[in-house]
Predict the structure of Conjugative transposon protein TraN.
Amino acid sequence: MKTKTLLIAIALVMTAIQGWAQQATFQTDSKSRLEPLPLGISLQKTTNLIFPFAIRSVDRGSSEVLVQKAKGVENVLQLKAAKDSFQQTNLSVITADGSLYSFMLNFSAQPTSLNLQLADKPMGYEPLAIFAAAKDNQEKILTASEFVSVKNRSLSGPSSSRSGIQLQLLGMFIREGVLYFQLQLANNSKIPYDIDQLRFFIIDQKKSKRTASQELEQSPLHIHGNTTVVHTASKQVIVVALEKFTIPDKKNLVIQLNEKNGGRHLQLKVANRHLERSISF
């Protein structure tokens, strides 16, 4: 009798533990659940998903959905249905900052939106995807440079032009002790512009006749974009990452672009008041 009572008690305890575990698991899952965003796509129209960071990974749930990155860019994904009325499926995208985006795809002959821009994550957001720890700091700089490269112009900054070539400062950003300079290179001439050198250095605003002008070189940590050639009738954006610095009084930061085997050299001056307008992200 005692043995039977003991077995019943053990069974009741095990049932209670199992129920508690199921409840705890359910509570944890409900808090961490990432609901997919519903999205309709068509056979005849292309849907563009614009992400704030470069795309690292794409997984589609069905071959009935056509997916590709837009040619020449890293943060735009293009979707189209491969057939009419495909069965509901999903799409998962991981971007360079570790963010996971989940979509539930349905067929729609007339999608309500063809261009969807995904918002930046709020402050304090923790990425869901974790990349390898090797060269972590360099990876952060590369990721941040990619982010800055697709940002809209934020500064009516200085510019320099000569013989159809233009160098313009579009914006400055700062993150974790690194300054990011967003530059636009434009070639409105009929001759390609081969880049020889892109320099950043601090120099006196006015050079004294009695003293030699000293240049304080600022060495880039990373340069994102094409720094080889600017083709005719084209524009391109490059991002230069530099270790954080300030510009002393009566001095300027000079950004100098030199042409290889040519004379269309450009330079623009950045004052400390421009630097103070850097955007933190």
Remarks:
- DSSP finds three helices and 19 strands in the chain.
- The CA atoms of residues 141 and 222 lie 7 Å apart.
- The first strand starts at residue 37 and ends at 41.
- Residues 145-206+213-280 form a domain with the Immunoglobulin-like fold (CATH 2.60.40).
